[in-house]
Amino acid sequence: MQTTKQLLDRAKKAQGIESDYKLAQHLGVVQSAVTHWRSGRSSPDDVIAAQLAEMAGQDPLAVIAELHAARAKTPDAKQLWLRMAMQLRHAVAAVMMACGVAMILLAPSPNGAQAATTQSAPGGMCIM
Q1: What's the burial of 8, exposed, middle or buried (CB within 10 Å: 0-12/13-18/19+)?
Q2: Distance CA 29, CA 22 (A)
Q3: Could you tell me the pTM of the whole model?
Q4: Per-residue pLDDT tens for 9-63?
Q5: What is the largest CA-CA distance in the chain?
Q6: Long-range contact list for 82-90, CB < 8 A, 24+ apart?
Q7: C-alpha of 63 from chain center
C-alpha cells in the first residue's frame, strides 16, 4: 500500500521536480498544503491525488483507493479500499495486456511486404 509521502516522492521524481515548493506550484496549491500532506496532518483531495498519480505514471483510481485505505478509520474500511485498489490494478493490467495482444495481432507481417515483391521461379527459387 502506498502512502501519501511515497506518492509525492514518486510524482516529483517522475517529473524531475526537486522541491515541494515546485510541486505545489505545479499542482496549483500552496506549499503548506504539500507540507501538511507529507507530514500526515492532512491529505490531498481525490482530484489532487489523481493528478499526483498521473504525474507518477500510476493508475489514478487505484492510487485514490490506496490513499483512502491508508487513512481508513476501521479495519473493515481499510480492507474494502484495499480490495478496490487491487481490483482496479488487475483491471488496468488486463486492459493493458489485451491492448498488447491486439497490437501484435493487428500488426502487419514483415514478411507480407517481402512476399508481394517476390515471385517463385520453377524449382522453388525466388526472383526479386
Answers
A1: buried
A2: 10
A3: 0.67
A4: 999 999 999 999 999 999 999 999 999 999 999 999 999 999 999 999 999 999 9
A5: 82
A6: 82/1, 85/1, 88/59, 88/61, 88/62, 89/59, 89/62
A7: 9
